[in-house]
Structure formats: structure tokens, C-alpha cells
Amino acid sequence: MNLKSLISLMRPKQWIKNSFVFAALIFSGSFIKIDLLLITLKTFILFCLISSTVYIINDLVDIEKDRLHPQKKYRPLASGEISKMTAILLAIILLVSVIWLSYDNLSLLSILMGYLVLNIFYSFKLKNVVIIDVMSITLGFVLRVEAGSVSTKIPISPWLLLCTILLSLFLALNKRKSEIITLKNGSSSHRKILEEYSIELIDNMLTIVTPSILIAYCLYTFNSVQRQSMMFTIPFVLYGIFRYQYLMITKNLGGKPEDVFTKDIPFLINILLWIISVLTIIYFKL
């Protein structure tokens, strides 16, 4: 066991998902307010700690199945680099830290604990219930957005919440599709829920979810304060959807969304241009 293995067990690559806590701050035009920015950064860190707790619990539950997986077998627990007792101890330390650091905001603490409970249910039961499994993942993203809103007391646009729901469904469905492709005929032996899914079923679901993302984002821009300017950000969202689908179909990268968001240069450039455009429009009131 070493520090690198412990850090790997916490899955820091997955922390990019917790950036959803910044949604309320950014889209309200309050990103330049240092006090609110620091509060949101603290919320981001808390979600990183609680999500790492969840990943450890999930790895403990799936340790035997992960040892049969072509990629997951290299994880610290599955490979034997870290013992179960060490993993349990780390999870306890992280959980205690989250409670201690968020005790001054009971609303935020309740969301963090709700996220933990949701994912414990997911690890033991919900991940084996068709459709509910991907909807549970979606709820986790909604809780991230709500945490950012609650911690700063900034209300979030219902259209942005809808975009969050649809985008997370899009990512979750593509993840299931990627798992089926990666594991091929032995998919059900690695993850029971994959027996309930097929490429055709997931593609049918995506035909509903994918255009809905674009429609929801368009409705958000139409209802925003700077609606005429915000409409110019729609092409970035459209390109992002198309690029993700391209990477899913040609390179099967949908199983690890964090790799798409951090390693695919065209996708990353598009995200950065979208962020710059949104910040410019909101903060310079164009």
C-alpha cells in the first residue's frame, strides 16, 4: 500500500463531476464575489470527499466482480494493492471530515448525507433496477447543483436544473452502452443490470434524451436576461453533443466521461469556448 494507491482509490478523476456545484454561482453572475466563490469551493471539496466515500463503498461491494472486469481489475481494491480494512478506515475518515466541515450548514449537510444514502442504496440495490439505475445517477447530479445553490443561497433556474437532468441521463445511458460494448457477450456476468439493457434500447432512449438537452438549453437562453446574446452559445452545446456521440460510436469513450471531458482536445476546446462565451455574456452584460 502507498499514497498513490490511496489517492487512486478515491478516484480524483471523477471529481470533475462535482463542478456542477458551481452552476448557481456562475449563471447568477456572482462568480466574481469572493465570499460566495470561497463558499462554493468549500462545497466542491465536500462533494469530492463524500463522492470518494461513495466510490470506496462501491468498490468494496463490487470487489469480486471488478476482479473479472478487463479494466476495473486494476483498481486498488480489486488488484489487492489496498486491503478491505484500509479502505473501510479511509471511508470513515472521509465521512467524518464531511460531517465536521459542513456541520455549520445543516441544509448543505442534509444534501451531502442524502447523496451518501442515495448512493448506498444504489450500490446495494438500485444499480440492479433497470431505468432506476440511470435515474439515480441523474439525481446525484441534481443534488450537486442544489448543494451549490443552498450553500450560497442563490436560486437556480429551473431550465438549468432540467439541463442537468437531461445531460446526466445522456452520460449515464452512454456509460451503460459503453459497458455493453466493452464486455460484449459476458456483460451480464460482470454487471447484472446489463441483462436488462441492449444497444437498441439505449439508442431509443437517447433519441429522446439527446434532442431534449438542446431544447432545454435553448429554452434557458430564451428566458435568460441576456437572451439574444446567450443564444450564440447554442452552437457550442450542439457541437458538444455531436462530438460526444462521435467519440462514443468510433472510440467507445462513453464508459469514462471524465476522459472525454479532459483528454479529447476538440471537446475540451469547445467546453472552454462555451465557458468563456457564457462568462463574457453574463459578466460583461452583452
From TrEMBL:
InterPro entries: Prenyltransferase_related, UbiA_prenyltransferase. The chain crosses the membrane at residues 20-38, 44-61, 82-100, 106-122, 129-150, 156-174, 228-246, 267-284. Its EC number is 2.4.2.45. The keyword Glycosyltransferase applies. It is an enzyme of class 2 (transferase). It is found in: Membrane. Keywords: Glycosyltransferase, Membrane, Transferase, Transmembrane, Transmembrane helix. GO terms for molecular function: glycosyltransferase activity. Pfam families: UbiA (PF01040). It is a multi-pass membrane protein. Its main location: membrane. It comes from the Bacteria. NCBIfam families: PRK12324.1-2, PRK12324.1-4. This is Decaprenyl-phosphate phosphoribosyltransferase. It comes from Clostridium mobile.
